[in-house]
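Summary for the steering committee. One of the milestones for this cycle was to obtain a three-dimensional model of the protein with zinc ion bound, which we needed before selecting residues for the alanine scan. The sequence and ligand used are listed below.
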Amino acid sequence: MRVIGSERFSDHRPPSGHPEQPARGRVMHAVGQRFAEAGGELHAPRPATRIELERVHAVEHVDRMAATAGEVVALDPDTYTSEDSYDLALSAVGATIEAATYARETQAPGVALVRPPGHHAEQDRAMGFCLFNSVAVAAADARAAGIERVVVIDYDVHHGNGTQWMFYEDATVMYVSLHQYPFYPGTGGVTDVGRDAGAGFTVNVPLAAGAGDADFDRAMRKVVVPVATAFDPGLVLLSAGFDAHRRDPLGGMEVSTEGFGLLTAHVQRLAAAACEGRLGVVTEGGYDLEALEACLDSTLAQLRDGVPADAPASGDTSRVDAVLPAVQAALSPYWPGVF
Ligand SMILES: [Zn+2]
């Protein structure tokens, strides 16, 4: 297992009071340092290249982001740069590519502890705290390296609109999201299933506010794992946002730190069964510092220790049960053996 991180990720400085704050980078660095002190492998990131970015981003977008180097710029009402943000966004993407490459080559998990996050960044614009879409660039890089099918699983509380649209017509990269709905950014309804050649290769499980461990666990068992297993990926990527945590100030969900462990365990078992454990993980959101630190520490420990035994969550499943029939009906034309 390898972790890619840097204390420099705290040098991306949105305006004071912004939830995607520099202290998140300090938490990530502390987690990485503890992992290293316990004998884990911690690597510094390299910047992504133009060629890598332009696999999913428009040339004009990369140019616009490059023009923010050294500058404080408001890219949208939520999304800002400071002097070092462009360099750090490049490093966030590079770290994610490295995590995925390590996973591909060694069959052990690679983890990128990075900010700014990425999954809202669109092909042609920054959005929702995100400059470049790190997980999407890593998925495209794996495709370019010869992996035939990549699945991106995203349990951040927000829908990853950028990742969805980048691969919406693509049958080789499946995007699977569990998220609060309706909520920012507004996309990710059950009928967003992909288009043309990509129809059936976008999977959304939109959950009402208040969903907790048992809802998310059931969504994994009933939808995410079955459809991703049928897809037969050569690489699993995880957009690991922790803003569905019950402590999170932005999300309205009730997932516990232990609940995130259960969700990650499903992803680990999927990767073990489908592709010899090839699992790349990248941080996305997670805005309560205490919850972020606890979730990252426990996620790294669980990835290091190997695939845990299956342990179903108990509790209320009314929110997932309310949406499962619609999700399954939307996907059944494309996955008749699964739903
Ligand atoms: Zn989020």
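Key point for the committee: The two ends are 34 Å apart (CA to CA).
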